[in-house]
Amino acid sequence: MRGAFRRWAFPAQPRPLPHGRWPSIALRSIHLAAFSILLGGHVLGAEPALLRPYLSVTVLSGVGLLALEAYGAGLYWLFMGKGLMVLGKLGLLLLIPLFWEARVVLLLLAVVVASVGSHMPARYRNAMLLPHHHPSTAEEESRMPTHPRCTAFAVAIVLSGLALGLWRTPALAGDAARLRANPLVGRKLYMTYCYTCHGVTGRGDGPAARELAIKPRNLTDDAYMSARSDQDLYSVISGGSAAIHRFSEMPAWKAFLYHERIWDLIAYIRTLHRPRAAPGQPAPQPGDVERGKRLYADYCAVCHGREGRGDGPVTMMFGPRPFDFTDAAGMAAKQDADLYFAIFGGGEAIGKSAYMPRWGGLLQDQEMWDVIAYLRTLPRPR
Q1: What pLDDT digit, counting tens, does each position of 12-23 carry?
Q2: Both 163 and 179 in a single domain?
Q3: pLDDT in tens, 143-166
Q4: Is residue 278 part of a domain?
Q5: Distance between CA 73 and CA 88 in Å, rounded?
Q6: What distance in Å separates the CA atoms of residue 42 and residue 318, rounded to the nearest whole number?
Q7: Residue 232 counted as domain residue
Q8: Judgement on whether residues 329 and 244 belong to the same structural domain of the protein
């Protein structure tokens, strides 16, 4: 048994493939095409779900190539430096789902993609792909044979795959990405990545701002923000201070956020400097209690609590306690219009805590009335 395995693993003569070189060419073409689409789409920030099928095809075709080579040459290829590079590449491909944002890894993998199929000694590769050709020993040891037509074909596949990957990835400044921007998603991103420097309200007074030599930008400055296009904001967020040639400590977020998420963030930032509601009473609209209940659970309960008592899970992070909607006296003193202005303009609009965000740019007018209708139904102990 041991002798049979040794003869298979370390054959005295290479075994030719049953169908010549065509299985290897087919697998290599599939591997290069899928890898190129993966590279083109991932480097420019396509969503992971879109790229996972190409990742699977890339890995499976690479494993198939290695299986073909193991059939022809046994385990000789394992002791070659380039063979180890290919195994390393496949291992990194399998790990890509763990670090989707590390796109530079794919650029490095492009350097070794050509090693697939070329890491075997010349005599083994010749015997597998050209089983009837028997080069001299000097020829075997002096050079690795090149095939210009195969090289040109591989280059064409790579370029086509990259083009397809770019085509499947939305343009960075495309209207489609902006139209799909969701300011509610942007608010979550802002509270995760931005508020520590720019502050909860965007005034540049976050908890880390005092440690910075150059203070963060005040995102509520209407004069400054109105003079900046969405593409300007995209460049700053994506490339950091280097993108605008300004000395500051603004980091580049392109390595951490996909471009769709950056547009979501911009959509939310735009709400921070919108003018407050004009004086006057808004026209009350009948609200849908059930819809308001769902909206409250999604956007309000985190601060005001599930039952509206002002005891949400994040209250320990802020100073003033959020308003208690179960306070009978407090709610009786507020008209629906008062609640509307507080929701629309945030705490600062009514002279209260700035930690209450403005929802006027995030929720539709009717949605705010739905929330108010639900707040009126909350039980209030006497």
Answers
A1: 565 666 666 677
A2: no
A3: 444 455 555 555 555 555 555 555
A4: no
A5: 20
A6: 39
A7: yes
A8: no
